[in-house]
Design brief:
By secondary structure, this protein is mainly alpha-helical. The longest helix is centred in the middle third of the chain and has 34 residues. It has a domain of 215 residues: Alpha-Beta Plaits (2-Layer Sandwich). Helix 1 runs antiparallel to helix 6. The strands form two sheets. It has a six-stranded mixed beta sheet with strand order 4-5-3-6-7-8. A two-stranded parallel ribbon has the order 1-2. The N terminus is likely disordered. Belongs to the Rap family. It comes from Oceanisphaera psychrotolerans. Keywords: Coiled coil, Cytoplasm, Repeat, TPR repeat. One of its GO terms (cellular component) is cytoplasm.
Length: 750
């Protein structure tokens, strides 16, 4: 990643042009030319130039003799040339994969610019340093550096700087996962660049937009932007940008099983990398071209590309790349049924991977050798290779490789007449396959608590309804009697009055009981029954609006009419009675309920699910910023007055409904509840790890992949998280969440 990022800097934020009376020395001119193709030589040239002594520019400007001026220019360096040399050296070091020396070099350039108060040079250095920070996955530092550089720019600043800065600021937003802001920024840059005739800036904005859509799994949109980037560049000599755009297009076409287009763009990428002159990038492009060509069943042509790459690698002496090429060449020969050559190259690859302790590629090589021996009807040798691959995969718990090794072992024993062993490996194959494709349901508490009490209340409610029906019949009977027995009207009126009073009393009792069934008695807040009573209507309403939005999708506006469901775990409510006693616990819970009802948003609802769990429901239209809402909730519990010391480290899980805006009917309320509990479990895990409040939001990407969520919803959701189909926003680093720990394997059945 350092290489691609630094090359972007080289194109958009190079050293500023020197003054007219101080042209670039020969060393710096040559270093600029070698910045992309041979960065190592570029670093050597800048080091050689920086060995000159620095001279005051006035001595060169005021020199009265041309000979003296030329002699000074040949032996000395000026301040501006020194700054340019340090900037060029930083870029070359970054392109050569040396991030720490690159950072040190650019710091020297920035220090010189500040010392001599040269704002444009300082802004250029800060821009390069910000890009290197992005390469280190530090978008916050990059953002601060870019803001500092922006403050230094003026109307007379170089176009290279004013073009680079907006692109880098938008890239920083993308690194911070502020996707909507990044997309809007890229679109704005692209439109402005088109209006101002800045074709290179427009092409870069278009390319980075393709990366944005690819990150969101919208491959067709990403592909269209990469192709459009190539069209914008045309015949311009922007070899690197054209090469990486073509390489991205080739990978996407290959994923879409469009072999001809994939080979075409892979060829284009290789051509551009060859024109660029960087052998490392050319080798990677040849590898990709060979794989794409072999996937198109042209192994002979793929061998040509792999051998060309092998010649370049031998010149560089990179043993790791050489071993990878041996593996690819052996694969091609096996596909061509050339057993001798395939065995030779696969053996070389295996030896090299074993020496470098590259276990995954060693397993790949053993599987290739095993398949080769199988095809040559050598079951004994095949068994040795495949069994060793299985053992290495078991050591690493490498499930994909275990699936493939057991599949091949089952095939081996089946063809060699050993059905019992074949059955063993076939079972293992299915077990690992199931393990890879299915996760267990996360064990959490159900929304339904105290089932005995619930059953009793339901019985009482049914009895009251029956009494009410009987009273209605009595009322009708008395009405008939009133019409036929006018002589006894006083008695009839008395009976009707008595029946009316009794009916009103029972209706009042019925209403009170129904209200009590919908309210948690300890806190006075609405309970899970009220939530489940209202949930279907809310879901149906949002599903209808989501369908209307989907029909108007041409407007390219995101769906902004969700309902947020926030599941809060309040630790001090879990074991309150055990810690402070029943009387104090009841009093504190009642005060908490009254306090929360007065603090929540007027258009939000809060439900008490017992056992320290609350659900906070609010419309997206009422949420200006979700993090502000979360901060308000945390502050609301933190400011609750109490004489007892309370554990207020909230763990909050968040989802929005519809979870899949383009397929709103795919998930019902129970499945959404499972996803919400999964989010809260992840937040609870973060709370236990950090000792702080934590929240986790699960948000499906904007795609029509509802079929992916068929089956066990927790397994599907975790799988979607691992594949990037469900985004995870969190108060802490998402990498701290162990999703596999949240979904343990089921106990083996006897």
């Amino acid at each position: 990643m350092i290489l691609s990022v630094a090359v972007l800097v080289s194109h958009l934020a190079g050293a500023p042009a020197l003054s007219p009376y101080q042209p670039d020395p020969v060393e710096l001119q040559r270093a600029r030319q070698l910045m992309l193709s041979r960065p190592g030589e570029c670093v050597a040239l800048t080091n050689f130039f920086l060995q000159r002594k620095e001279v005051d520019p006035a001595q060169m400007i005021n020199s009265r003799q041309d000979f003296d001026h030329q002699e000074l220019a040949r032996r000395y360096r000026t301040r501006e040339q020194t700054q340019a040399a340090w900037q060029i050296q930083a870029l070359c070091q970054a392109n050569d994969g040396l991030p720490l020396p690159a950072d040190a070099s650019i710091n020297k350039a920035i220090e010189l610019a500040r010392r001599y108060r040269q704002a444009d040079a300082e802004a250029s250095g800060l821009t390069i340093k910000a890009k290197l920070a992005l390469a280190r996955q530090d978008p916050e530092q990059a953002r601060a550096l870019l803001d500092e550089a922006d403050a230094l720019l003026t109307e007379n600043s170089p176009v290279s700087l004013t073009s680079a800065l907006p692109l880098l600021q938008a890239s920083a937003l993308l690194y911070q996962h502020r996707f909507d802001e990044a997309r809007q920024a890229f679109e704005h840059i692209r439109v402005q660049a088109q209006q101002r005739g800045r074709h290179l800036q427009q092409a870069w904005a278009n390319y980075l937009l393709g990366g944005y859509y690819q990150l969101l799994q919208q491959d067709e949109l990403a592909l269209s932007h990469y192709v459009e980037t190539l069209s914008l560049l045309g015949k311009r000599r922007q070899y690197y940008l054209k090469a990486i755009a073509a390489e991205k297009a080739a990978s996407l076409y290959a994923a879409l099983n469009k072999g001809e287009q994939a080979v075409h763009y892979a060829n284009m990428a290789t051509t551009e990398f060859e024109l660029l002159g960087n052998p490392t990038l050319l080798i990677g492009s040849l590898l990709n071209l060979g794989r794409v060509t072999r996937a198109g069943n042209d192994a002979n042509l793929a061998l040509v590309y792999f051998f060309n790459a092998l010649d370049l690698v031998k010149t560089q002496g990179d043993s790791e790349l050489m071993a990878r090429l041996y593996l690819e060449i052996g694969h091609c020969y096996r596909q061509l049924d050339n057993a001798a050559e395939a065995r030779h190259y696969l053996t070389l690859a295996r030896t090299s991977f074993k020496r470098s302790q590259d276990i995954p590629r060693q397993i790949d090589t053993l599987l290739q050798l095993g398949q080769l021996h199988l095809e040559q009807q050598e079951p004994g040798l095949a068994l040795l290779q495949l069994d060793q691959a299985r053992q290495l995969a078991e050591q690493r718990d490498d499930v994909p490789h275990l699936i493939e090794s057991h599949r091949l072992l089952a095939l081996l024993f089946e063809t060699s007449g050993n059905p019992s062993q074949a059955l063993v490996h076939q079972k293992a194959f299915h077990d690992y396959y199931e393990r890879a494709s299915q996760l267990n349901r996360l064990l959490t508490q159900s929304l339904v608590q105290d089932s005995d009490q619930q059953l009793q209340q339901e019985r009482e409610l049914a009895g009251l309804r029956q009494q009410n029906a009987q009273l209605q019949q009595d009322k009708q009977r008395f009405t008939l009697l009133a019409t036929s027995l006018g002589l006894i009207s006083p008695l009839l009126l008395y009976g009707l009055l008595r029946n009316y009073i009794r009916s009103r009393r029972l209706q009042h009792d019925n209403s009170a009981l129904q209200h009590s069934l919908l309210v948690e008695p300890r806190t006075g807040l609405p309970n899970w029954r009220q939530l489940m009573q209202r949930l279907p209507q809310e879901m149906a309403k949002r599903q209808q609006r989501s369908e209307q939005w989907y029909l108007n999708e041409a407007e390219a506006q995101p769906f902004n009419d969700k309902i947020y469901y926030l599941l809060l775990h309040v630790p001090f409510m879990v074991d309150l009675s055990e810690r402070i006693g029943l009387a104090h616990a009841a009093d504190l819970q009642k005060k908490l309920g009254d306090y929360l009802q007065g603090r929540i948003h007027p258009k939000a609802r809060l439900y008490d699910l017992r056992e320290g769990q609350f659900i906070y429901v609010i419309s997206q239209r009422q949420v200006v910023d979700l993090q502000q809402t979360l901060a308000s909730l945390e502050r609301m519990f933190a400011e609750f007055p109490s004489q007892f010391e309370l554990d207020q480290r909230l763990a909050i899980g968040i989802i929005g409904h519809p979870f899949l805006p383009k397929a709103p009917h795919a998930l019902d309320d129970m499945r959404l509840g499972d996803i919400l509990y999964l989010a809260m479990a992840a937040a609870h895990q973060l709370t236990e790890q950090t000792g702080e409040r934590a929240w986790v939001e699960l948000l499906a990407v904007d795609c029509q992949q509802a079929a992916f969520f068929n089956g066990d919803i927790r397994h599907c959701c975790v799988q979607a998280i691992l594949k990037g189909l469900v985004k995870v926003n969190s108060s802490h680093k998402k990498q701290q969440i162990d999703w596999h720990a949240l979904a343990p394997e089921p106990a083996a059945t006897l």
